[in-house]
Design brief:
The structure holds 2 protein chains of 2 kinds. By secondary structure, chain A is mainly α. Chain A is elongated, with a radius of gyration of 22 Å. Chain A starts with 71 loop residues before the first strand and ends with a helix. The longest helix of chain B is centred in the last third of the chain and has 25 residues. The chains are: A mainly alpha, B alpha/beta. The interface between A and B is large, with 48 and 51 residues. Chain A: InterPro entries: DUF742. Chain A: This is DUF742 domain-containing protein.
Chain lengths: 157, 199
């Protein structure tokens, strides 16, 4: 399709890049309909305007290995020191994990996807700013006394 | 289990033992409602973003789409300071099966929600947990005006093992939802004791 300077996706940069010029690795074809108002394409299917893994610079796996959704995170310091390698999200994670908090809950609190939170936590672990406590091995059967405690606790609700 | 606890400076909470229960069932069976009705925290949703998962999805016609967002509900019940129950509503769409593997890893058990108007919707969940050996109970979500089927009829229709509990409840009622969880944990404990006796 020939470039139309008035097409809705021309974001007005001087000779600026359209999103499709950002590289072919991870682009979603935008539905183009020049008759519709600008930004009309930004419906739910368009997804987030900033791609989730932008904050991890495209990394999808945490350094130092994976960890469980229910691993508990504990910050080793009340606040992460300012460092060029740390993004606002890193600081927010350290701040949210002063009390032991599970990985899944951090993701929800900070409204980040679990995959992204894992990468950021991997960074923080490498920097010594958090400790990670894995849940007991999955193969281990659940202790019957623990199960009884759960039943009693649920009854008391 | 002491290994997961931290006896640090004592000013912060210790690391609790976290147990995981899955809430499964077909689309619209009441998973989100149930997680919300028993959770002590505002039911939280979190997203898993998938990138380029091969073979997980039939992508014909959407070749350009490489990422998909999956939303998972989760809630929490604090039993004691050292013991927490996490509830995960499993992603309903069949194409996210592979996510279930991580969710069911180490899970205490599962609640399969059945809607008698669309009983077949819960077949895949039941097959999955049977194959993995994850203990589960079937909870028939009774919407007020719906004609009720007895637990036995549902168990027969689902071709369940005779020991799998089938309960009727209303997912909107916190106490009813809590009772389903009690049913599940008691069932898991019974199985555990049986297994220990067989050894």
């Amino acid at each position: 399709m020939p470039a139309d300077p008035r097409a809705p996706h021309d974001w007005g940069g001087q000779g600026g890049q359209s999103p499709r010029d950002w590289g072919d690795r991870d682009t979603v074809p935008l539905r183009t309909d020049p008759l519709r108002a600008p930004h009309d394409w930004m419906d739910q299917d368009a997804g987030p305007v900033v791609r989730p893994y932008a904050v991890t610079q495209g990394r999808v796996a945490p350094s130092g290995g994976e960890f469980d959704l229910l691993a508990f995170v504990v910050a080793t310091v009340p606040d992460a020191p300012p460092a060029p390698s740390l993004q606002p999200e890193h600081h927010a994670l350290v701040g949210a994990a002063w009390e032991p908090t599970s990985v899944v809950e951090l993701a929800s609190k900070l409204d980040l996807s679990i995959g992204v939170v894992r990468v950021l936590l991997g960074d923080l672990r490498s920097a010594g700013l958090i400790s990670l406590y894995e849940p007991p091995a999955a193969s281990q059967p659940h202790d019957v006394d623990v199960l009884k405690a759960v039943v009693n606790g649920l009854r008391a609700l | 289990m002491d290994s997961v606890r931290s006896d640090r400076d004592g000013t912060r909470s210790r690391i609790p033992v976290a147990l995981k229960i899955l809430i499964a069932g077909g689309f619209g069976a009441g998973k989100t409602t149930m997680v919300g009705s028993v959770s002590e925290i505002r039911p939280l949703q979190t997203e898993e973003v998938l990138t380029g998962v091969d073979g997980a999805d039939d992508t014909s016609g959407v070749e350009g789409k490489r990422t998909t967002t999956v939303t998972m509900d989760f809630g929490r019940i604090t039993i004691t300071e050292d013991l927490q129950l996490y509830l995960f509503g499993t992603p309903g769409q069949d194409r996210f099966w592979f996510l279930w593997d991580e969710l069911s890893q180490g899970a205490l058990g599962a609640v399969v929600l059945a809607d008698t108007r669309r009983l077949a919707d819960c077949f895949p969940s039941i097959d999955y947990f049977e194959q993995r050996g994850t203990p589960f109970v079937v909870a028939v979500n009774c919407f007020d005006s719906e004609r009720r089927f007895g637990g036995k009829a549902v168990a027969k229709a689902l071709d369940l093992d005779p020991d799998v509990p089938v309960v009727e409840f209303d997912a909107r009622e916190p106490l009813a939802a809590r009772n389903v969880l009690i049913e599940l944990v008691e069932y898991v404990a019974r199985r555990q004791l049986l297994a220990a006796g067989a050894r």
